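Retro notes - structure team

What went well: the batch runner handled both jobs without manual restarts.
What didn't: labels got mixed up in the shared folder, which is why I'm recording both outputs here explicitly, each with its sequence directly above its tokens.

Job 1
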Amino acid sequence: MRTAVLLDEGFEELEAMAPIALLRRGGIDVDMVSPENRTGETGRFGVTLSETIPMEDYDFSQADCLLLPGGPGHVNLEKNEKVREQIRNFYNDENKVLAAICASPTILGRMGLLKGKKYTCFKSMNEDFGGEYQEDYAVTDGNLVTGKSAAAAIDFAFAVMEKLTGKDHTDQVKASIYYDADC
């Protein structure tokens, strides 16, 4: 399994780093991809992830999941036609997972991809996207996983993991962080 995380300047660090760390803990390969073709991206609170792959060099056909963190960087993601094209590709492929948290589900909503779907996002950013807004931290509907906010980053990561690897495997990874005393 492989996940591509799209990072643009101003991404919300918790919404990117918690899924990256937990998915990797669960044995999922995670690639950090820069839509602006940089080899490093800085989040809204000054944390720089220096091993990003320029989007122009990335083969999205090799990824099973496309993950979009929120934060101010979501504005740049939404403006980027190549990003929107990849969002559509993952959304339309029932064998792939599209995941977005906090502000980023609003990108999907404005693209019309939340119509008839259960979803969540940062509550104050919710608009009439034609779907059914849920108050939950993480919501899965088909191949779509959405997360509510930075506080939901762990629940969101586990929902993505469960969609990719199944409940049993995800429960094992959960046990390793919640119950294992060998830290």
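Job 2
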Amino acid sequence: MKTLVIVGHPDIESSAVNKKWIEELKKYPDLFTVHELARVYPDGVIDVEREQSLIMAHGNLVLQFPIYWFNCPPLLKKWLDEVLTEGWAFGKAGNHLEDRKIALGVTAGGHQEEYDQDGRYKYRLEEVLVPFEITATYCNANYQQFFAFYNADFSTKEEIETSAKDYVQFLQTL
């Protein structure tokens, strides 16, 4: 089954890395469905049934987003709150994510060294992303490692292009 990539970037046109990742993923339409929340829901009103059906029509689920205040952007958080509901994603009869592989593709503006106990932010990115792992576990999904691109604000075109190819390879190993 194809992998569903939920893109939570609020302004993809201003992005270098997330935009390139999307372009690369779209080269493989038999493997990936790219679903850009900001394009589909510019008004922020999410069609929950549509989103749940989209998840059900796919195998793996990937959340792709830039790190915003050490979390995901607001529309992706709203999507999580509204789509992953009790009785559907968890709770009695809420088994639609059970054993489904869930991974993250994230970009961080800062250097990797800044995400360390001795760095600027005092926490590794693995620690910052723990709420996503807990969410997947709570829904009985199979949380996978994440793919990260650091220093997104100051990267070269070559680094971005390489990361896009590496991202596709990472997703193919899920």
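One thing worth noting from job 2: The chain has a mean pLDDT of 97.
We'll revisit the folder naming next retro.
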